[in-house]
Amino acid sequence: MELKESIDAAIETLEALYFFTQGLDGQAGQHLAEIRAMYRLLISQGYLRFLRELRDNIAAVRIHYGAIAPDQTYRGLLREAREALGKIVYISKLQMERELFLHYEKSIVRWRHIKLHAFVVFDPTMGFLNQMFEMDGQLFHDAQFLLHKARTIQGGVRSQRELPQNRHRVLHTTLRALVTTLFTFMEAYLNGIAFDCFMKNHDRLELDDHDLLGEWNSAKKRRKFVAFDDKVLKYPRVAAKMAGREIDLSAFQPAQRIISEGKDTRDAITHPSAQYDPELQVQKKLTLLAGLTLPALESLYADMCEYVRFVEEGTGNNTAESVPWLFDERGFISGREETI
């Protein structure tokens, strides 16, 4: 009975390793089916040899993908995935590299370019998805979708004032959502830079850089929030430095526009106020909120795209691999326009 239990555990281990590396469709699934069929026909005298062959298979898969966790860890993860009531399971790249596999690039070709804060997506009902969830990419596509909708709503007219009243109102609703989504994307991108650099270089960071990336005050041992403009200008500088490079955003105009006019617009939407500025003699936030235009937000979108390209290249990344979503305009635009 003990030998049979060892065989059951070995089959489950091989299945789990296949699930997290190759998936259970195709050759891996066929191999498992053949093993189970052979097991059902096997007499007890052949159990020991069968177990040895199973363990050889397991060892080969472990070596190929650099599996570093005990067998029971992979079995446990697969059980948890299947017990999640059909939900998709996400495992961070950080956990994958530190706890599970040293050579996961043999499973996902783009692996070494993928940001550390990304998730690998697993669906127990489909066997394997081999997809990544990258928060900045998801939010970037949200912004692209809203920008596409705003362009569709405005249509071919040069000024939004030419639109019928109800269409003009829908346009402004979309533009306000677009501002919020663009800056939500930027926060995700910047915080992703901070997370990756912090986790990769924690023991090598200077204290000031450690506290900047971690939004922490070591002297007072408490949280210290970092201003948005500091994130825009300083996070890439630290990331570049830790990669043995230099990047200077102080004179980069897209960055300057994002933290000035862009952020003013964002603040007008996020913290709306009718407050009067006695120096400028204007209700600045209210004026910005009421005066949103599609061309202005297209320029802001372009500045953010240019900023990401500049930062990725300045920190030594291949943009086509590290931020492929920046160049992908498929999927969020439907072939058939919805009625507005």
Question: Any overview of this molecule?
Answer:
The chain is mainly alpha-helical and 340 residues long. The protein folds into two domains: 2-133, no CATH class; 136-327, no CATH class. Helix content is 60%, strand content 4%. The chain contains 13 helices and five strands. The chain has helices at residues 2-21, 26-41, 47-65, 71-82, 93-100, 135-154, 165-201, 207-214, 228-242, 253-270, 284-290, 294-314, 319-322; strands at residues 89-92, 119-122, 131-133, 216-217, 222-223. The strands form two sheets. It has a three-stranded antiparallel β-sheet. A two-stranded antiparallel sheet has the order 4-5. The model is unreliable at 334-340 (pLDDT under 50).
